[in-house]
Amino acid sequence: MSSTSLRPLLTVGLTGGIACGKSTVDAMVGEMGAHVIDADAIVHGLLAPGGAAVAPVAAAFGSGVAGADGGIDRKALGAIVFADAAARARLETIVHPLVGEEIAARIESLRRAPGGPIAIVDAALLVETGIDRHFDRLIVVACSEKTQLRRLVTDRGMAENEALRRIRAQASSEEKAARAHYRIDNDGGFEETRAQVEVVYRSLLGDFEAERSAGRLDRVRAWT
Questions:
Q1: What's the N-to-C CA distance of the chain in angstroms?
Q2: Engineering a disulfide at 34: which of 14, 66, 118, 220 sits with its beta carbon 3.0 to 4.6 angstroms away?
């Protein structure tokens, strides 16, 4: 299949703050037929033994972030970058281009194979990095800071001060939602969230048809 005959896809960014429930929404849209690309899973692979980010991250942050298995100790790295905005920016400079390359490769692979028309990329920092502008649509999964804090402390066993630091290192749900085409509020229960996801997914299918008819899905975007 040539580059001019790649099949059209509606590319959708999905973002939200820590513990807002992006993974829950990923599972739901996957069941509905979307292709889901998890940027966090890509990062885990890059920082795992043999991953492309291991050497540059170790060089930038020192032996304290080196894992015993030959990868990066993500807990040690997280303790550094969530406490220091400059360190976080340094990490993003290393990791984001590599993640972008992998997303681009996966999108191209989807365009060359049969399947559904919606590709969703789940990434926490789409709005903060400005990468959201590369997508046809943006979904934000939102909840209150109180809910985020409860989930991190109760469900993940995180200390409250560390949980707050991680929450406030990212843009707020309201800041993210201001850039979004669709918002899913995830303060409630599973069925309430699923009902919203079903409405959004039906709208995305309509968006795909409208964008395809207008010829706006023919070009392949850069993903970095």
A1: 24
A2: 118
What's the CA gap between 36 and 39, in Å, rounded? 10
Task: For 146-155, write each residue's pLDDT tens digit.
Answer: 999 999 999 9
**pLDDT, position 148:** 96
* Tokens encoding 155: 């469900």
pTM: 0.91
Structure tokens belonging to residue 192: 């309430």
d(CA 115, CA 105): 16
Which residue spans within the chain are E strands per DSSP?
10-15, 35-38, 118-122, 137-142, 182-185
The domain limits of the chain are 9-213
Q: If one looks up domain 9-213 in CATH, what number appears?
A: 3.40.50.300
DSSP conformation letters of 154-216: IIT---HHHHHHHHHTS--HHHHHTT-SEEEE-SS-HHHHHHHHHHHHHHHHHHHHHHHHTTT
Per DSSP, 49 falls in state T
In this predicted model, what pLDDT tens digit does every residue of 36-69 receive, in sequence order? 999 999 999 999 999 999 999 999 999 999 999 9
